[in-house]
């Protein structure tokens, strides 16, 4: 199965009701109507056009100019990003089917429910919505080998926040990966808001192995007896020692291990990274749109009924009311796609990332984890030269190097794919990734 990307210059996928290979929420009228006079626009727009758009088209030039500017900006964005090799490790490309589902009638519907019973809906007209969510629930549990799943978080961040709010109390001790280890630092951010103060300490991190240090972590856990230990990283090169940490948590009795798998969920789904629940983690929290090429959103997986019940009560109604039903349908489609093609996709994604790391190292870049093959995921991390560390911010340097900045030099032509012909390093200590390149069918089709 291939996953095509809209060709540069094809603006019909943005403004037309019959879109191209990449599906974007369609405009009710096609783009030419926005490039004409208000009188001609009024004549062109059929009586079946939704009334809000018909009123805009009949109201004058300013409104049409605004719509034309909006469509032009979206078109320009898609042409620009579609013509560049995206090495942002946390972004991906979803299939046209997912785009259709995200733009379906579900996007405007409500179907929220309390507790864990998917059939106890607060709104009418949810017969098929319930069946869609039951299908997504079954697919997620099957793919990740979990007894329970919570699909309502609107992001991976909110999924982690829900777990913390449900299982910790103000003043509790939380251990999590620090910034140097690529940690998302969810507990630290929540505590910094002053609304939910926690005592947050950094997990010991081994920079040479680029993973959590298991021995020092167990010693710290025995000393501090934390309520929560949060594993996971945004620069997730190598698996974290889940089994060792989970065994120590069970020894302590009251410690819960949360695995933030947002950046490697697609690799976990394909069995190509690690299986955190099978290794003893109490919870797997994640976003659904990074290496897993799904819609933006979040999920929580667990084998512990008591824990997931507490968390579901925190999710609804505490953090989420309407949980964006089109996202649920699109996530179900992404899980089916991963079931059918995920093994080859994940394997080639990792191979591309390893090839990228080796090629960058050959060209003089200081690539983290060289002694371990650079990476076991989709991510490659580069250390900037000391002389460059006082220069522009790493993100800006990376944007210029990879065409993610309109003012950059745009050295990101389509030939740069998965490390075969990588762009020269320009400084910038950051994660570079291969999933979008893999999804864009660079090289073999998935």
From TrEMBL:
Classification lineage: Bacteria, Bacillati, Candidatus Sysuimicrobiota, Candidatus Sysuimicrobiia, Candidatus Sysuimicrobiales
Keyword hit for Methyltransferase: yes
Biased amino acid composition, Basic and acidic residues: 396-412
One Pfam family it belongs to: SHMT
Region (Disordered): 383-433
GO cellular component, one term: cytoplasm
UniProt name for this protein: Serine hydroxymethyltransferase
GO aspect biological process, one term: glycine biosynthetic process from serine
GO molecular function: glycine hydroxymethyltransferase activity; methyltransferase activity; pyridoxal phosphate binding
Cross-referenced PANTHER family: SERINE HYDROXYMETHYLTRANSFERASE (PTHR11680), SERINE HYDROXYMETHYLTRANSFERASE 1 (PTHR11680:SF35)
InterPro entries in alphabetical order: PyrdxlP-dep_Trfase (IPR015424), PyrdxlP-dep_Trfase_major (IPR015421), PyrdxlP-dep_Trfase_small (IPR015422), Ser_HO-MeTrfase-like (IPR049943), SHMT-like_dom (IPR039429)
UniProt keyword annotations, A-Z: Methyltransferase, Pyridoxal phosphate, Transferase
Domain Serine hydroxymethyltransferase-like: 83-382
Similarity comment: family membership: Belongs to the SHMT family.
Cofactor needs: pyridoxal 5'-phosphate
């Amino acid at each position: 199965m291939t996953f095509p990307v809209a060709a540069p210059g094809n603006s019909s996928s943005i403004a037309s009701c019959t879109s191209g290979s990449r599906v974007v929420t369609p405009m009710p009228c096609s783009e030419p109507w926005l490039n004409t006079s208000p009188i001609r626009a009024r004549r062109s727009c059929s009586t079946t056009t939704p009334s809000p758009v018909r009123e805009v088209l009949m109201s004058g030039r300013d409104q049409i100019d605004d719509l034309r500017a909006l469509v032009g900006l979206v078109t320009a964005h898609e042409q620009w990003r579609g013509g560049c090799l995206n090495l942002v490790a946390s972004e991906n490309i979803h299939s046209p089917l997912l785009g259709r589902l995200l733009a379906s009638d579900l996007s405007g519907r409500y179907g929220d429910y309390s507790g864990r019973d998917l059939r106890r809906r607060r709104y009418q007209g949810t017969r098929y919505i319930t069946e869609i969510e039951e299908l997504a629930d079954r697919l997620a549990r099957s793919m990740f080998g979990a007894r329970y799943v919570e699909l309502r978080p609107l992001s991976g961040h909110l999924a982690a926040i829900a777990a913390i709010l449900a299982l910790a109390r103000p003043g509790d001790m939380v251990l999590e990966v620090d910034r140097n280890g690529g940690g998302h630092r969810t507990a630290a951010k929540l505590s910094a808001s002053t609304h939910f103060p926690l005592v947050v300490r950094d997990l010991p991190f081994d920079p040479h192995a680029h993973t959590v240090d298991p021995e020092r972590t167990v010693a710290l856990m025995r000393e501090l007896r934390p309520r929560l230990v949060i594993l996971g990283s945004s620069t997730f090169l190598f698996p974290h020692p889940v089994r060792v940490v989970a065994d120590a948590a069970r020894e302590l009795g009251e410690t819960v291990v949360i695995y933030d798998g947002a950046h490697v969920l697609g690799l976990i789904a394909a069995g190509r990274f690690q299986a955190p629940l099978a290794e003893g983690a109490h919870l797997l929290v994640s976003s659904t749109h990074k290496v897993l090429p799904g819609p933006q959103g979040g999920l929580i997986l667990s084998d512990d009924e008591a824990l997931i019940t507490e968390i579901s009560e925190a999710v609804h109604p505490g953090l989420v009311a309407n949980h964006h039903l089109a996202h649920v349908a699109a996530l179900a489609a992404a899980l089916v796609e991963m079931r059918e093609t995920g093994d080859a996709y994940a394997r080639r994604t990792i191979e591309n990332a390893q090839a990228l790391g080796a090629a960058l190292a050959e060209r003089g870049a200081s690539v983290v984890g060289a002694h371990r093959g650079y990476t076991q995921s989709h991510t490659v991390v580069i250390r900037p030269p000391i002389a460059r560390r006082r220069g522009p911010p790493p993100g800006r340097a990376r944007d210029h190097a990879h065409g993610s900045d309109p003012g950059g030099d745009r050295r990101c032509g389509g030939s740069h794919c998965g490390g075969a012909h990588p762009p020269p390093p320009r400084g910038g200590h950051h994660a570079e990734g291969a999933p979008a390149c893999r999804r864009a069918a660079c090289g073999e089709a998935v």
